[in-house]
Amino acid sequence: MKYLSLLYLLICAACQFGATSRAYAHGFAGARFFPATLSTDDPFVSDELSLPTVSTIRTPENGGTRETDISVDISKRITPEFAIGIGDTFTALNPHEGPAVNGFGNLELSGKYQLLKNGVHEAIVSIGLGVEVGGTGGRSVGADSFSTWTPGIFFGKGFGDLPTELAFLKPFALTGQIGIAIPTSASTRSVTVDAQTGERETEIEWHPDVIEWGFALEYSVIYLQSQVKDIGLRAPFDRLIPLVEFAFESPVNRGAQGQTTGTINPGIIWAGKYFQLGVEAVVPINERTGNNVGVIAQLHFFIDDLFPHSLGRPLFGGNK
Amino acid sequence: MKRIILVFILVVLADSARLEAHAFLKDAEPSVGSTVQTSPNEVRIRFTENIEPALSSIQILDASGKEVDKRDVHLDRSDHALLHVSLPRLGAGTYKVVWHVVSVDTHVTSGSFTFTVSR
């Protein structure tokens, strides 16, 4: 125990020592600040905490089920370009008929490496790997007994390098991701016994590989007023970033090809010094996804700004 | 374990007691994207955080990219989030202001904007 205390103090000392170097950190590429998006993953690595993200929507399952999710995600930079993350979701399901159930989903782990950051062109590219750890969540809320691995690529691009004639388009930015979710089990076999006849019935549920893709188109009032034209907006309106997110899932095999589901989420983010608030409508793209509009909201903390000399710094390699 | 938690809390509290953040441009004079009638004597940029002047810069460039300011960037005496740079008399034209600042907690931000002198 004494050595653990010593180790922790050494890590803190290393962080403090590293504080003499300069820090860029969360979501910046040149003059562009990319906010953390709610429905698609960020293209940058950072020290950040989403607590909580709350969403609610009525899904088509069991004649209509109100699904409410409350999740937490934390990301920590190990080096300036590499971060790891952990998250979990508490789900409450209220079906139109039948009893309500709730519980935690599977634990989600992630690693992300920032391959490219170009300040002049306001561009960021990262690669990452997410793992949903099977068997760590409640079966009653649909947590899988098997793990799913999701390698992916993430990008962000600001439009600040557009010509002067298109100055009012410069505050636009696009971020996005594409990955493939690969379950470690192709199918789940379940056997039921008819209580009256005693016959055994075997059901097979297939788990296809799924391409997860999405993007966010955002317009930064922060960028507009500091880079293009001060139109006189003051707090709190000068920190707004209206956006539309598009989040889709497209199965590619095991009989589910072409059955894309997804949502289009228009909303707004307010980005402050130490945290941001975001809220979006969740609009299903087809009947397979659902027929009702939901909502998602998030409180997101910038750990690197809250604790710039300790928790908010990479563990190794200083800052840049 | 209690000692670890106690040390952790103390470090975090000590760190959060000196909160600073990324420095965004708050306002500028001449203002971002504005047109002024006559040459301003200086450019002033106020940021959302206090600035480390030794690691910060402002450059004023003319249409050909030549630096035209007097290279005397300095922090305001009473407002440590406000940087000044002096200008000679500027002719009519559009000028680009390029800034690069380090806030006192070492976070780096940068940006640019233009203003136009009409005569």
Question: How would you describe this protein?
Answer:
The complex is a heterodimer of chains A (320) and B (119). With 320 residues, chain A is mostly beta strands. Helices cover 9% and strands 50% of the residues of chain A. Chain A has 3 helices and 17 strands. Chain A has helices spanning 2-18, 221-228, 303-306; strands spanning 28-29, 32-33, 48-59, 65-79, 82-95, 101-104, 107-118, 123-133, 148-158, 172-183, 187-193, 200-206, 210-219, 240-251, 261-271, 275-284, 294-302. In chain A, the strands form 3 sheets. A 12-stranded antiparallel β-barrel of chain A has the order 3-4-5-7-8-9-10-13-14-15-16-17. Chain A has a two-stranded antiparallel sheet with strand order 1-2. In chain A, a hairpin with a 4-residue loop joins strand 7 (107-118) and strand 8 (123-133). The longest helix of chain A is centred in the N-terminal third of the chain and has 17 residues, at 2-18. Chain A starts with a helix and ends in a 14-residue tail after the last helix. The relative contact order of chain A is 0.19. Chain B is mainly beta. Chain B has a 4-stranded antiparallel sheet, with no helix packed on it. Chain B has a 4-stranded mixed sheet with strand order 2-8-7-4, with no helix packed on it. The N and C termini of chain B lie far apart (70 Å). The longest helix of chain B has 15 residues, at 2-16. Helices cover 13% and strands 38% of the residues of chain B. Chain B is elongated, with a radius of gyration of 19 Å. The chains are: A mainly beta (320), B mainly beta (119). The A-B interface holds A 1, 4-5, 8-9, 12, 19-26, 28, 30-31, 33, 119, 164, 167, 222, 225-230, 273-274, 302, 304-312, 319 and B 1, 3-4, 7-8, 11-12, 15-16, 18-22, 24-25, 27-28, 31-34, 48-49, 55, 102, 105-114.
Descriptive key words:
heterodimer; A: about 325 residues; mainly beta; twelve-stranded antiparallel beta barrel; two-stranded antiparallel ribbon; about 10% helix; about 50% strand; B: about 120 residues; four-stranded antiparallel β-sheet; four-stranded mixed β-sheet; 1 helix; about 40% strand
